Amino acid sequence: MLLPYLHEHFVEAGVDEAGRGCYAGPVFAAAVILPPNFHHPLLNDSKKLSEKNRDILKPIIEQQSIAFAVASVDNNDIDAINILQASYKAMHLAIAKLNTTPHFLLIDGNRFKPYPLIKHECIVKGDGKYAAIAAASILAKTYRDAYMNQLHFQHPEYDWQRNKGYGTATHRHAIALHGLTPYHRKSFNIMPT
């Protein structure tokens, strides 16, 4: 059972990212403020849900949340500042886009770069513990998947429609065969030697 909040009297935003370990494409982040009484039987960590259930939950989260925002940082930025800093940047951009300012941030994971003037708590595996983080994980994942599905049509040989940019055997084989696209993260040293 997911917890509705950490602090009962604060407006809390759950924040999570998707695509940190990918070979290609941006890292996405989402921030979500849910009403304290929000409940949906399917809601869980996005990694534990089927694509179908994530797609069911996405519009429900968007319609019933108090506020939500999604942001991304592209592979060129990732190469310039590194993936950890790019993840923080995407999270900060998503928080900044919220049309309601939260009092507190629930961050999935064990590290975060503090956001100006808003306190936070890092929660390891938070997307399986708090409803707002689970909701953020679903939005970050569904928006990123949709983006990678679009990129797939430009470079179908990398099979991004299926692997979403992760380093699957098919993706690695395509890199060995065709080299890197402008969407690959060159700092990840993914070219076979």
TrEMBL record:
Gene3D superfamilies: Ribonuclease H-like superfamily/Ribonuclease H. CDD domains: RNase_HII_bacteria_HII_like. A divalent metal cation binds at residues 16-17, 108. Its main location: cytoplasm. It is an enzyme of class 3 (hydrolase). Manganese or magnesium. Binds 1 divalent metal ion per monomer in the absence of substrate. May bind a second metal ion after substrate binding. It comes from the Bacteria. The keyword S-adenosyl-L-methionine does not apply. One of its GO terms (molecular function) is RNA-DNA hybrid ribonuclease activity. The keyword Ribosomal protein does not apply. Keywords: Cytoplasm, Endonuclease, Hydrolase, Manganese, Metal-binding, Nuclease. Its cofactor is Mn(2+); Mg(2+). InterPro entries: RNase_HII, RNase_HII/HIII, RNase_HII/HIII_dom, RNaseH-like_sf, RNaseH_sf. It is found in: Cytoplasm. It catalyses: Endonucleolytic cleavage to 5'-phosphomonoester. Its EC number is 3.1.26.4. Residues 10-193 form the RNase H type-2 domain. Endonuclease that specifically degrades the RNA of RNA-DNA hybrids. Belongs to the RNase HII family. This is Ribonuclease HII. It comes from Ferruginibacter yonginensis.
